[in-house]
């Protein structure tokens, strides 16, 4: 009966979307959010809520960084070259960019099956590049493993694809994307890179106004795009078949590769939608289209933390479009921040206590087994070891994506500060105990 009642609820309207977005802002505490919902060839509603770094209201025209959502735009730019016969999807990239090894085709770059992974290149070195040409020149050596045989998500693929656009077209990637994707779609406030208002990072629930991290080409194909909710509405309509892209091109971009369900900047979510998210250091975004119903959605936030709220907000918009009532918006981020803050304070308190009691501890160790004392010292020093290998640990749990020290001071700021506090406390206790052990002998 409940399902029947929900099914009779009206489809989304500007009022229902605005009401939902206000609830989202209140419950998540995000600084600013912009969204758009489309249906068929029409925009149902594009809007925003909250504030930007300058204190202005976030609206449907507020520029937002969309991170890896940029990848679907790079795929679209390449597909326009394919439609014009200027490059083939099965052409080897090596023929245009000799810095790349053979057997990597254009298709394999776009569907992340080139054999390139973060482990196959020096990601830290690539952050030095400021242009796509410099980026590709810094790539060698590239240890591409079995092109076409496995999926490995890496920003390198789409940055190389953007450089390919430049070489084949004879234009900068920024100009080509503007002339052949943005302008035909009427996306007049979108660009491949450049300035946008500062974003925010959460430090134990306090949102800090921060500039975006400068860690790669100013204009790239993997994550530098800036757009608005208004413009994303034009894009989503085109992706649902009401635009300049050929049906065959859309099918190619949306469809899976031979070895994975990831397409070219899109992948199925298991519920009949095609989606792609984007996580930058101070911004988050997600886009989705429902080929069956013709709905399209985009959610963009100017705040980034350990917990990304864009997926939850998207779920609410989908519920509205399917005649249902969205779940009460909320975010576990506040709880995560509270736990991390409490852990950091506890670590500091234990560190102070350990230093104060170091002499008493050392005196108790006299005459006892030295190996047991050594074990206790090692345990105290574990937070120091963990923090020393912090980037490697995060990279490991991030499914092979390389995360650098500088990046951990952004989206993971609360965790980084907590671990640093624990490491300093552990180091202080370890030092005090060793000094006291030496002095009492």
TrEMBL record:
**Entry's transmembrane regions:** 338-358, 370-390, 410-435
Ordered alphabetically, the record's keywords are: Membrane, Transmembrane, Transmembrane helix
* Residue ranges occupied by any Beta-lactamase-related domain in the UniProt entry: 18-306
Q: What is this protein called?
A: CubicO group peptidase, beta-lactamase class C family
What species is this protein from? Lentzea xinjiangensis
